[in-house]
Each structure stands twice: as C-alpha cells, then as structure tokens.
Amino acid sequence: MRPPGFWSLTPDTGDWRSTILTPLGSLYAAATARRLRRSGIALDCPVICVGNINAGGTGKTPTVMALVERLKARGRSPQIVTRGYGGTARGVMRVDPARHPASLVGDEPLLLSAFAPTWIARDRAAGGRAAVADAADAVVLDDGFQNPAIDKDLSIVVVDAWAGFGNGRVIPAGPLREKVETGLARADMVLSIGGPEDQRRFDRLWGERITCPHLRGALRPLLTGMPWAGLRALAFAGIGRPEKFFGTLEELGATLVRAEALDDHQPLSAALLSRLERDAASLNAQLVTTEKDAVRLPAAFRSRVLTLPVRLALDDPAPLDAALDRLGL
C-alpha cells in the first residue's frame, strides 16, 4: 500500500484528515510506549540498532551494509539480526542465499546475507542469542528501534532527508511510529540520507529538534564499469521512494523511457515481469531494477534484468567511529 499524500505534508501545513486522525495516532503512540517499557536481555557483545521513527523505507538496509563493512574493516565479526519482513519463515533461521528464496526469508535479509551472517527472527532476543552462539562479536539489529527485546548499546535513527518526519504525526495521522521527540530521546545518533538540497530541507524543517550527533550521508551508485550513459531503460522498483532510484539512473546518463513504481516489497511475479519485458522490447529498452528488488526476481529473469546497486557514503564518519571506539569495536 502507498502512504496517503497528506503524510508527506510539512509539519506546519494543516490538513483536516490528519487532524481527525490525530486521536488514533495518540493511541498508536501510547501502545508503542507501553511496549517499550518491557525489559530486554543483554547480549554478550555490543548491540548496534539501525532503526527509524518513520514507517516504511528510510535507508536502513544500506546503512546496515555500511555499518557491517565498517566493523569488518576494524577486524570484527558482526552478524545481523532482522525480522525477515515479507518472508514466510518462522522461528530462528540463519539465511543461506544458496538455498533460501526471498519468499521464505524476505528480500532485505537475503541481500544483507551477502555482507554478514544474517538471522531472521521475529523473537529478536532468540535471534541475538543465536548470533552470539555463532561467534558474533557485534550484533547489528536491523529495524529494532521500537522492539525492546534486546538491550541496545548504540541506536542510530535513519531518516530520508527529503521526506524528513513527514507531517510530524503518528500513524494513521502521519507516517511516524512514535512522536519525534519521544523517539529521538532514545536515539544516540540520527543519520539523514540525501543530497545537499535534501539535507538543507531537513535542517530547515527538523534541525532544531536534533539534540544528538547528526550524521549525514548519501546513496551513491556502485559503478562496475557498466556504461549507463545513453542506455534506454525501462526501470522498475519496489522500494520506499522509487523516484530516488529513477533519478540516480538519469544522473548516470541513462535515458529513462519509462519508470514503473511498484509497492514496497511487491512480489515480482512471472506475469508482471513478462509484461514489463514486452513493454521494454516495444520501447527498445533494457529492464533495470534495484539491488533489493533483484533478489526477488524469478530465476528465469535474473540474467535479463540489469541491477544498479547503491552504497551509503557518509559525509563525516568521525562521530560514528568515536561511538564504535567507546564500545570497544
């Protein structure tokens, strides 16, 4: 499902729908607060949580990738614990990309498993224990900011710089899982992801509310020698903000003859892909998608769709490095 348009209004823009729904948002926020009062377990290694206050995609997956790469460069053996959103698996399972399809474990865990051992577990405490038993010396908790099952040593709240915190209201009146002030009071860092113009917008709308260290970064295409300039592309993406992916392709010089925005985590059926392939052929274009979408491609289509991966680049990683130093990592 796509979020309603009024969620993306700036906090100083009134809207009758968000006003009517605000009491329900207060109930949602209260339920989140009650859940967070539960006590969690302490693991025998540092736990770094990458989460958000917004519902939906903000850039957590590339942040987790960058974090585990940074930890490995420091000589650590991090493992990832995630819920496995979109997969059907139950219990605690270490993702095996050679055997497990995205339909079983979820697309993001399958992608993350290429960077570090990845556990899916709706019971995050059980997943954390499994990672420690598997010799993890650091656990990266993906999307666990509102989950109290594991005590966290460092919590990073990730936010899309352009979208910010939307209209500043809680679901269903807005896009937030909890109030901005409540969430940021538990955060050790905020990471806003976007280009310079997006970052200026974020600072203007939300900068005064950020009281913890504020990291800034952007998603950069991972260039592998593929000649994107001049390529006629029919691009499709089922991510939080597909337009960011489409814009990146255009910045690389591709000619975007069509952009198909899918729902986040939308299944890529053979029927859908056959239709996109026919459309691409009629337009003399190449199918292109994101790295996260690519793991959901049926085997028959994987060699016929180009993938554009992106990686997080931090403007100044010094505050993150200092926090990792304090944790002995």
Features:
329 residues, lipid biosynthesis, ATP-binding, nucleotide-binding, lipid a biosynthesis, alpha/beta, Rossmann fold, 2 domains, 33% helix, globular, LpxK, nine-stranded mixed sheet, four-stranded parallel sheet
Describe the structure.
By secondary structure, this protein is of the alpha/beta class. The protein has 2 domains: 47-219, P-loop containing nucleotide triphosphate hydrolases (Rossmann fold), CATH 3.40.50; 232-308. Helix content is 33%, strand content 21%. It has helices at residues 16-36, 60-73, 102-105, 107-112, 124-133, 180-186, 196-206, 242-251, 270-282, 291-294, 318-326; strands at residues 47-51, 78-82, 92-94, 118-121, 138-142, 154-160, 189-193, 214-221, 232-237, 255-261, 286-290, 306-308, 310-314. The strands form 2 sheets. A 9-stranded mixed beta sheet has the order 3-4-2-5-1-6-7-8-13, sandwiched between helices. A 4-stranded parallel beta sheet has the order 10-9-11-12. The two termini are 39 Å apart. The relative contact order is 0.15. The model has no long low-confidence stretch (mean pLDDT 94). It holds the Pfam family LpxK. It catalyses: a lipid A disaccharide + ATP = a lipid IVA + ADP + H(+).
